[in-house]
Write a structure and sequence with these properties.
Domain Methyltransferase: 149-283
Number of helices: 14
Mean pLDDT: 89
Organism: Aquipuribacter nitratireducens
Strand order of the largest sheet: 4-3-2-1-5-6-7
CATH topology of the largest domain: Rossmann fold
Bound molecules: S-adenosylmethionine
Shape: globular
CATH architecture of the largest domain: 3-Layer(aba) Sandwich
CATH class of the largest domain: Alpha Beta
Helix content: 25-40%
Keywords: Methyltransferase, Transferase
Number of domains: 2
Structural class: alpha/beta
GO molecular function, one term: methyltransferase activity
CATH superfamily of the largest domain: Vaccinia Virus protein VP39
Oligomer: single chain
Protein name: Class I SAM-dependent methyltransferase
Amino acid sequence: MPEPLAPALAEVRGLLLGDDLVRAVAAGRRRGATPRAPRVELRPVEVSAGRRVVVTEQRDGAAPLTRTLDAAALPGAVDELLAEPFGNWHVDTRSATVQLRVTKKGEAQVHRGAPAATAVAAATHDRAKRHRLAPDDPLFTAVGANAAKRRQVDAFLGRLAPVGPPPPADRPLRVVDLGCGNAYLTLAAHRWLSTRGPVRTTGVDVRDDVVAHDRALAERLGEEGVDFVVDAAGTWAPAEPPDVVLALHACDTATDEALAQAVRWGARVVLAAPCCHKDLRRQVDARRREAVTHADPSLRSMLRDGILRQRLLDTATDALRADLLRLHGYRTDAVELVDPEHTPRNTLLRAVRDDRSAPDGLAGEVAATCEALGVEPALARLLRA
Ligand SMILES: C[S@@+](CC[C@H](N)C(=O)[O-])C[C@H]1O[C@@H](n2cnc3c(N)ncnc32)[C@H](O)[C@@H]1O
């Protein structure tokens, strides 16, 4: 279905500027207009000074023009290219392939699909060496994070990188980590986002001993612009709504509380890696055999045995969460956080508010899934409240 062009190009912009980019090509032309080059390709490269993006413009009758851009020069160059009347953009990232075609009416026809095999290979190849914060960063030593936690935090930052918004012009970026625990992610995200401009970060946790520990830690590290509060994800009421909401392994429905709050606040970016999916399991197990016999026949074989039931309901929980976010104006994807060998809780829901209306029929699909399983997810309940 065609979409408005400006938000679709903004989505492409986010991918071109993100750390996940593998390759992008702009080509073709729009009706009645000619871009400055018939084809432009962007490819990131690692050089000793860090990451760069090589932009190669083909030119009619002349050798291609190649520029190598650093992080400071890239946004301007990308904006210039997006302003050119190219007819097509093809973007490969490590987590998705996005193809945008401009229709005769000047709208965008966008296909969003799985990453290309070459992009997956690139991701696997360099996953080990790409770090947002170095594994020996003193922060990790101070918070006592083990290697598995470091990998999760680094992977989380890697997923945040393409969508993490820059601070607004007139104030610091407001970030909250709900269910912050020992503040591994809170402090790492604060450190990393602060490299882009001023940030105020709040960690929220229900446990006062945890929050006391986090406050002492932040003070010991001399970290500025971070505070911690004792509260529940679903009740914490900040003076001003956060721009970015994070939740790494917030227990069970604490993830739903975090997502519901993020929607209410109208947060621009939400990243949640759920864990301990008990909500739907509780509802299904409460009805035991009847839950199986009354479930949609297509699901019964997956509900009969405990371990398969758990996996089905884990997947259903996160799929419904993603769809509910889409229904509330968020472009959402579910991606792998980190190799399963490091943690089985490796699904990450990543949502960026674009206020686009949800795909036709999505509300009906969500209702049908709930009906087939005989459940009402916590997030649906919280968003209705
Ligand atoms: C598994 S730990 C994860 C901590 C941290 N995000 C991490 O990944 O290291 C879950 C944390 O969520 C907190 N928690 C549980 N329910 C919560 C709620 N409703 N609101 C806020 N925090 C909650 C717990 O106290 C605990 O510290």
